[in-house]
Amino acid sequence: GQQLNQSPQSMFIQEGEDVSMNCTSSSIFNTWLWYKQDPGEGPVLLIALYKAGELTSNGRLTAQFGITRKDSFLNISASIPSDVGIYFCAGQLVGTASKLTFGTGTRLQVTL
Amino acid sequence: DAGVTQSPTHLIKTRGQHVTLRCSPISGHKSVSWYQQVLGQGPQFIFQYYEKEERGRGNFPDRFSARQFPNYSSELNVNALLLGDSALYLCASSLLQGINEAFFGQGTRLTVV
Question: What is the pLDDT of residue A76?
């Protein structure tokens, strides 16, 4: 099935550093969502974006809906050990009201 | 308030068997979607149900079926299990169809041997 392209695939950073990841597609999306998934758990919704150019924050997390509607970005500031996990972007394609298309995931590891 | 609950949490089945997975959405949510997540990949859409009707179907064989009950809970059924059906099956609930703030349960880990 179709998946969005996320980069980087994985990253290893030190506590306190800022993190950036992005999600790209060749198709246009109406909605972008960012999720975090811990091992053995379901994805947890972090941020939802509904308009091109929209910039939304949730604590140390900030996400943007790309102007072209084909990409989205997630930034985490001042990372802490509990930020460890896999981050997924997900989008609702134009004309597909019923499903989310997920990215390939970015695995984040944080060291002290 | 309880979140999305799924049962069972883990399941081991033999090839060719049938399995039923269950999901209770967040109270007040009327839409339930099912996703399959194979190890190392993002979730793949299987079905969405809203008001007891199928509203969307992903690229999965007819061995996969689902239904939604009057209380908005849902079942996912898979017949004639294959080894490749081994995955984490996730249920997501949304307030309405088309409202894509989807909240996921903890999943059911299905292993087919």
Answer: 97
